[in-house]
Write a structure and sequence with these properties.
β17 and β18 form a beta hairpin. A 15-stranded mixed β-sheet has the order 19-20-15-21-14-11-13-12-26-27-28-25-22-24-23, sandwiched between helices. A six-stranded parallel β-sheet has the order 3-2-1-4-5-6, with helices on both faces. A four-stranded antiparallel β-sheet has the order 10-18-17-16. It is about 50% helix and about 15% strand. The longest helix has 29 residues. By secondary structure, it is α/β, with parallel strands linked by helices. Keywords: ATP-binding, Carbohydrate metabolism, Kinase, Nucleotide-binding, Transferase. One of its GO terms (molecular function) is NAD binding. Pfam families: NAD_binding_11 (PF14833), NAD_binding_2 (PF03446), NBD_C (PF17042), SBD_N (PF07005). InterPro entries: 3-OH-isobutyrate_DH-rel_CS, 4-carb_acid_sugar_kinase_N, 4-carb_acid_sugar_kinase_N_sf, 6-PGluconate_DH-like_C_sf, 6PGD_dom2, 6PGDH_NADP-bd, HIBADH-like_NADP-bd, NAD(P)-bd_dom_sf.
Length: about 950
Amino acid sequence: MVNDLLEGIHFVASIEAMYLGVRAGIHPTIIYDIISNAAGSSRIFVELVPKLLSEDPLLIDFLKSTRKKASHVMDMSKSVTFPLPLLGVAYQQLVHGSSAVTGDGSASPLKVWEASFGVNIVDAAGEQIYDASKLADQLVAESKAAKRIGFIGLGAMGFGMASHLLKSGFCVVAYDVYKPTMARFADLGGSTKGSPEEIAKDVEILIIMVANESQADSVLFGNAGAVPVLSAGTSVILSSTVSPGFVIHLNRRLEAECRQIKLVDAPVSGGVKRAADGTLTIMTSGTDEALHCTGSVLSALSEKLYVIKGGCGAASSVKMVNQLLAGVHIASAAEAMSFAARLNLRTRRVFEIMQHARGYSWMFGNRVPHMLDNDYTPYSAVDIFVKDLGIVSCESSNSRIPVHVSSIAHQLFISGSASGWGRYDDAAVVKVYETLTGVKVEGKAPMLSKEDVLQSLPSEWPEDPIDNLVPIASHSSKKFLVVLDDDPTGTQTVHDIEVLTEWPVEALVEQFLKLPTCFFILTNSRSMTADKAMLLVQTICKNLKAAAEKVPGVSYTIVLRGDSTLRGHFPEEADAAVSVLGEMDAWIICPFFLQGGRYTINDIHYVADSDRLIPAGETEFAKDAVFGYKSSNLRQWVEEKTKGRVLENQVSTISITLLRKQGPTAVCEHLCSLEKGSVCIVNAASDRDMAVFASGMIQAELKGKRFLCRTAASFVSARIGIKPKPPICPNDLGLKRALTGGLIIVGSYVPKTTKQVDELRSQFGQSLRVIEVSVEMVSMKSMEDRDQEIRRIVELGNAYIQSRKDTLILTSRQLITGKTPEESLEINYKVSSALVEIVRRIDSKPHYIIAKGGITSSDIATKALEAKRAKVMGQALAGVPLWQLGPESRFPGVPYIVFPGNVGDNSALAKVVKSWASPSRSSTKEILLIILL
């Protein structure tokens, strides 16, 4: 029935799309040829349209069969009380199309459709045809070379397009309203300007890639717009998805300038990755002269280039048809999968079956996995289809072509946007059905009992090798462990270890001369883009290499300490390290972290939640807007993250059985047997497992093997033989009675942190002062609004701390993400930098400082508190490091507690605060501030 539902909707959507495209003046065969290979394609479209254009008698049987099956689905929907708005409208259109069919089946539904749409599609198909792809080939062959290109709009698609043009050797000068994006473009070697007007001077081609028609109009004709300063003969490429009518009107306005400004209608399709790779599908139309002037640029950006006859507006008409089908197919996938859930079908199994069924579409295959994973990381947002199907609605109205199914799909996307999901991935339209009916499409793997799983494992290796690890490691040379920590939380399991926040060669030489077993370098690379993280790791490795050459006998193993829930720049950072240090015998992947409840068993990485084990790929961490992933099996995860460079079957594994039954010697033998350049994952379910592996790895190193480790915190303490010690309290540090309040900074947005904050507020009530930072104000509004918000928080914070009130400053809990991982990182940066500025301006010395969240704690330590080095004293709670900042910091001697965003139960944060807090009473000044602010 799920397949029958999809067939019915796709049938009617194909009819609506073809008639709308033909009414727009596009040859139906051209539409078919392009859409069949585009994101708007479906198996029904590919099968139906040729029958439609040739008036194949089998079309009648196709229609009757589709209507009959849709009728059965409608009956079932009534029996299970489940709304099917798309199929309901499609079914009525199927009935309408059948109304001309006589009992003997001699009459054609084409008569009904011709009367409804006012188009004879068979006659249109008989008109002279041309090859849009061959026209494009001719265009490229005859195109003129372009020297200087202006680019306006560095959003998700625009940034990829502009950066690819740079890589292709074009001189590109760009503008975007968002300054950090322009800075990123400048880092790649591009030029930037402060307005569209400045961009437009002296360019041969101006590319517009903005979000909508109003933005396109503004950058061309608004204040400091581009058009008034364009040189005569300049070509303007409009690549935004806009209505054909807008393009036609824009062309007339440019012609009215009487300066031979040429417009090229060139909407694009393919997504962010294809934009950056130069493999987009581009439909283009305009005058022959305009196309010849821009052919070299369009060719550089595209893998498939089509020239559509009909002048400006024709290409956008084809894009409109594609978006009609794409939008309907996403919405129909949501309706189908929700219906499957109501029928108590296993949704993942339904998806597998549908990949081979007639009701399959490209969008079904691409978007349903997002629904199954409940992962709405925005690759293409709900609001995009609110806009695009709005274009379809407007153009169909102007053309008097009824598009019933498209209109319903449009309303579903509008409903999603109105519900607050507009910036979510467009697959989130399924949430409209889920909210309305209570079903859940998400196909989760079964959760396991932690106790049952751990008890099923073999007994641990009988000897604890932890006491012998340091003597073994230092047996033959000064072999140090250098940990590059992508945020400060990597010190969760160590004590009496130094942390550097800067890494000049001289500082590294100083560390090596101290002969430490280990030291940390805080990179904070998780807050950076992949490119910047790679450059940073390369720089540090070069400095380490130079420093080691100045200290005789020194050797070291690099650990890239990363998140135990698999977030971070892998394999980029590992690639960067190898590019400096040379190929390793193996990469070691070991995310086990006992204190955080992270276990790797049978190659599956789990996150413990109370007494359950949840596969990591099913957790909120896997849905991270920047570092999201699908796989819980670490071998599959390596293949996923390396994008197939390292296949699952090429990944070696050290099992718990090997660790517990054969011990360190077997680990050493296994590591020594690996082919050079291998990737090896380590299973572990206890600290003893970790110590056994570390012992075997050290033995392999003593035999000359070199390893690069990507691990969580537990590996570090095992590798250097550190045993845990009890949590540190104020008395352990000899702190005197508190004269000021403590400062708690919360930047982490993960659900666990939100629950911990709620529990903290519940336990402390009015004795805790809470100041919320508006994420929207500091990341999405003007600089004036941002500064006003920062000043408000600083004034309150100073007053509360002076009044001996423990003060919680936290970001608003609603997660705001960008349309791409890069944009999400930029939002994170703006929020983090606001917290830094707040702490930097607070001049009341707190009794203690807690920073919640990895990126937050790093930025607060290095940028707000100006610490260049620190010593890890131990932990304030299991998995929660406590640092003593260096004397150069703003508040030397103040305990700095680095609280990871994903560690501890709901009461963990409250426990730490309770250990450090001091009772106090409200001052008169504080009470007045509360009233006034």
